[in-house]
Design brief:
heterodimer; A: 11 helices; B: alpha/beta; TIM Barrel; five-stranded parallel sheet
Chain lengths: 316, 319
C-alpha cells in the first residue's frame, strides 16, 4: 500500500497559466446525473455491505427504483428547459434493465460514461484481471447500446483499487484507441483539470466532478434543506465564476434522480440551474467536451507548468 | 458475512462469481412488479376534477420499553439502557397529548385522516380507539408494535403468525375490515407481501418506489403498493435530517406546488403526508402542521382523501 496515490504532482492554485473556455467563458458548467441500478439481493463483498438491513432492504432499494420510475423524466425535462445535456454516470446494467431511459438520453445526445455494472458491485477485493473485465464489460455495454466510445469513468459506488485509473485508460485504448478512456471523475483535489500520471503514459485527465455539490452528499450525508442546497449551488458558482476571470474553472453538479427530483426539492435545483445558465460567460457542456478541449488546448501548457514547479520546489 | 478489516489491502479476495449477473435483463431484478416509467402511464383523474389527492396518514405507534431490537433497533425506538424512560415517554406523549391536537386541527380544517395503528396500541388505549371508531376514520394496520419487525431471515411461520395475530386482533377491536398495511419501520422479509395478501390485505405502503399506486404480485393475488412518501415524513425530515418544523412545512408546500403543476399535464397526483403525533404534536411544532393543513384544505385543486378512497378511484380507472 502506498502513502499517496501518485496520480499527480502538487500544483498550487496560484500563478497558474490562464485557461479560457470556448467563447471566452469563465466557467465550464456540466451536470452529471448518476443513473444507477442497485440490486435487491446483491452478492456479499467482504469489504463493504451493500445494504444496512437484511434483504430486502426496502428503504435504499425503493428510493433508487423511485428515481428510475419517477425522477428521471423530471430531471430530464428540467435539463431540457435550461439547455443542458446531461453527462451520465451510468450503471451500465441499466442498458439491459431500463432501455427506455437510455433511449431518452440518446435522443438528447447526452454523454454516457461508465459507473461500473451495478452500484451494488464494488471494486474492493477484485484482482486486476477481474477489475479489467468489469471495466471492459461496462465500456462495451455503453458502445453496444448507445454507439458511444466511453471517455470517462467514475468507479461504481466510488470503490477503487490502486489500478482503477490505469485499467480504465488501458481498456479504453484496447477497445477504441485514443478515442476512449481518457478522463476520470474519481479525484476531488482541484477546481481545474489535472493531467494524470498513468503507468501506460497515456494522455489522461482528471475532470472536477465535486462531491461537495453532489445531491446525495448534500441530502443524505449533510442532511441539508432543499433551499440551503440551492443556495450552496449558487454560491459555489458565484465564486468559480469570479475566479474564472483569472483562469477558467469547472463547476459540476452531480445528481441522482432519486434525490434532487423529489417534489419538495426540485424547485431549489431549478432555481440554481436558472441562475447559473442565466450568466453570459458560462460554457454549458459535458464532461467529455471539457476533457477534449483541455487536452487539445491546455494539457501541454499545464503539464509543463506543473513539471517546472515540481522541479523548482520539489515533490518529496 | 464478516466485514474484513478495511486497513488491509483488499486485492484479489473475490471469487470470479462476483462478476456474474443473473438478473441482468429487461425489467426489474425480481418478479414482484413490472418495470414502468410514470410518464408512460395513462393519466388518472380524481373525482370532481380535483388535481392532487392529499392523504394525511397518522402513525399511531407503540414502542415497547423492553425493546428486543431484532434484527435492528427500530428508528424512533429505545436507544438507552433499560429502562429508557426518556424515549418511551416521549413517544407515549404522542398518544396521550399530541394526537388530540392533531384531531382538533383535522376537524378545524376539514382534513380526512387515515390512521395507521399498531395492534398493541389499540389494545392498550381503549379510549383513543373508541374515539377513532366513533369518528369512523379509516384505520389500517401498522403491524403488532414497533419492535415486532418483519425482516429478511425471519422464520416464515413466526412471521405468518405475527401478521395474522396483528390483523385478527385489530379487525376485532376496530370492527373495520382493515385493508391496509404498513410494516413497522416499513421493513419486510421476502415473504411479507405473500402473508399480507393471504390475510386479506388490499394495499400496503412499504415499497416507496413510485409516485402513484401500482400492482404488486404475491402468491395469493395482487396487492397494490400505495405511495406513502418517506422523504416527506415528519420523522425523516425533523428527526433524521434535523430540519425545523418550519422547514418541514416549507418542503411540504413546495412539494404540493410541484405536484399541482405536474398534474396539469400528467394527470392526478398524490401528496402523501406520513405524520406522527409524537413528532408534530409538540406545542412548538403543531402550528406548522396546522399551517400546512389550512393551506391544503382550502385549495380548490385538493381532494382530501383516505388511503382507501384514493385506491378505489385509482383502481376504477386502471382495471
Amino acid at each position: 500500500m502506498k502513502e499517496e496515490p501518485g496520480y499527480y504532482d502538487y500544483w498550487p492554485y496560484h500563478n497558474r497559466p490562464k485557461i479560457t473556455w470556448p467563447n471566452g467563458a469563465k466557467v465550464a458548467f456540466w451536470v452529471a446525473p448518476n443513473i444507477e441500478f442497485y440490486e435487491l439481493d446483491p452478492p456479499d463483498n467482504p469489504f463493504r455491505k451493500p445494504w444496512p438491513q437484511p434483504t430486502p432492504a426496502l428503504p435504499g432499494y425503493t428510493s433508487r427504483d423511485w428515481g428510475n420510475r419517477v425522477g428521471h423524466t423530471r430531471q430530464m425535462e428540467l435539463l431540457d428547459k435550461y439547455g443542458i445535456r446531461g453527462s451520465i454516470s451510468l450503471s451500465t446494467a441499466l442498458c439491459d434493465h431500463h432501455p427506455e431511459i437510455i433511449e431518452l438520453c440518446k435522443e438528447r445526445n447526452w454523454e454516457f460514461f461508465s459507473h461500473g455494472i451495478y452500484n451494488t458491485r464494488y471494486t474492493y477485493g477484485m484482482t486486476e484481471e477481474q477489475e479489467r473485465e468489469m471495466i471492459k464489460d461496462s465500456m462495451e455495454s455503453i458502445y453496444k447500446h448507445t454507439g458511444q466510445k466511453c471517455a470517462g469513468y467514475l468507479a461504481p459506488a466510488l470503490s477503487h483499487s490502486e489500478f482503477t485509473l490505469d485499467l480504465f485508460a488501458e481498456v479504453g485504448t484496447e477497445l477504441f484507441g485514443d478515442e476512449a478512456g481518457f478522463y476520470t471523475c474519481d479525484l476531488f483535489h482541484d477546481d481545474q483539470p489535472t493531467p494524470i500520471h498513468l503507468r501506460s503514459g497515456k494522455r489522461f485527465v482528471s475532470i472536477p466532478y465535486s462531491l461537495e455539490m453532489n445531491d446525495t452528499i448534500a441530502y443524505l450525508v449533510q442532511k441539508t434543506t432543499p433551499r440551503n442546497y440551492g443556495q450552496a449551488l449558487k454560491e459555489n458558482f458565484d465564486r468559480l465564476y469570479q475566479e474564472g476571470a483569472e483562469s477558467g474553472t469547472i463547476m459540476c453538479i452531480p445528481t441522482h434522480n432519486y434525490q434532487v427530483t423529489n417534489a419538495h426539492r426540485i424547485k431549489a435545483y431549478e432555481e440554481a440551474l436558472e441562475y447559473i445558465t442565466g450568466h453570459s460567460d458560462v460554457w454549458v457542456t459535458t464532461g467529455k467536451e471539457i476533457a477534449e478541449y483541455f487536452m487539445e488546448h491546455y494539457y501541454d501548457v499545464v503539464n509543463e507548468d506543473i513539471g517546472q514547479k515540481a522541479k523548482q520546489y520539489g515533490n518529496a | 458475512m464478516k466485514i474484513l478489516d478495511k486497513k488491509q489491502s483488499s486485492m484479489g479476495t473475490l471469487d470470479d462469481s462476483y462478476l456474474n449477473y443473473p438478473h441482468r435483463s429487461y425489467g426489474m431484478d425480481h418478479e414482484r412488479y413490472e418495470w414502468s416509467m410514470l410518464k408512460n402511464r395513462k393519466p388518472v383523474a380524481w373525482p370532481n376534477g380535483k388535481k392532487v389527492a392529499v392523504w394525511v396518514n397518522v402513525g399511531l405507534q407503540f414502542f415497547p420499553l423492553n425493546q428486543k431490537g431484532i434484527p435492528f433497533k427500530v428508528p424512533g425506538g429505545m436507544t438507552k439502557p433499560y429502562p429508557d424512560l426518556r424515549h418511551y415517554t416521549l413517544r407515549d406523549y404522542g398518544n396521550r397529548v399530541g394526537i388530540y391536537r392533531f384531531l382538533k386541527a383535522f376537524d378545524r380544517y376539514g382534513v380526512k385522516p387515515t390512521f395507521a395503528m399498531n395492534t398493541r396500541l389499540a389494545e392498550k388505549y381503549p379510549y383513543l380507539l373508541g374515539l377513532l371508531k366513533e369518528r369512523q376514520d379509516e384505520i389500517l394496520s401498522h403491524g403488532h408494535h414497533m419492535d415486532a419487525l418483519h425482516y429478511g431471515g425471519q422464520n416464515p411461520e413466526e412471521e405468518k403468525e405475527l401478521v395474522k395475530t396483528a390483523l385478527d386482533r385489530l379487525r376485532n377491536l376496530t370492527g373495520q375490515s382493515v385493508k391496509g398495511w404498513i410494516s413497522p419501520a416499513k421493513n419486510e422479509s421476502m415473504n411479507t407481501p405473500d402473508f399480507l395478501a393471504e390475510e386479506g390485505i388490499a394495499y400496503f405502503c412499504d415499497w416507496a418506489n413510485d409516485a402513484m399506486p401500482y400492482n404488486f404480485k404475491t402468491k395469493h393475488g395482487d396487492l397494490v403498493a400505495m405511495p406513502l412518501s418517506t422523504e416527506l415524513e415528519d420523522h425523516f425530515i425533523i428527526l433524521n435530517n434535523l430540519h425545523t418544523a418550519e422547514d418541514w412545512g416549507e418542503q411540504v408546500k413546495d412539494a404540493f406546488a410541484f405536484l399541482l403543476e405536474e398534474s396539469q399535464t400528467m394527470g392526478g397526483r398524490i401528496l402523501s403526508l406520513n405524520i406522527h403525533p409524537w413528532v408534530l404534536g409538540q406545542p412548538h411544532r403543531i402550528g406548522y402542521l396546522e399551517s400546512v393543513l389550512e393551506e391544503l384544505a382550502a385549495h380548490d385543486a385538493v381532494w382530501m382523501a383516505t388511503a382507501s378512497e384514493i385506491l378505489e378511484s385509482w383502481k376504477s380507472q386502471t382495471a
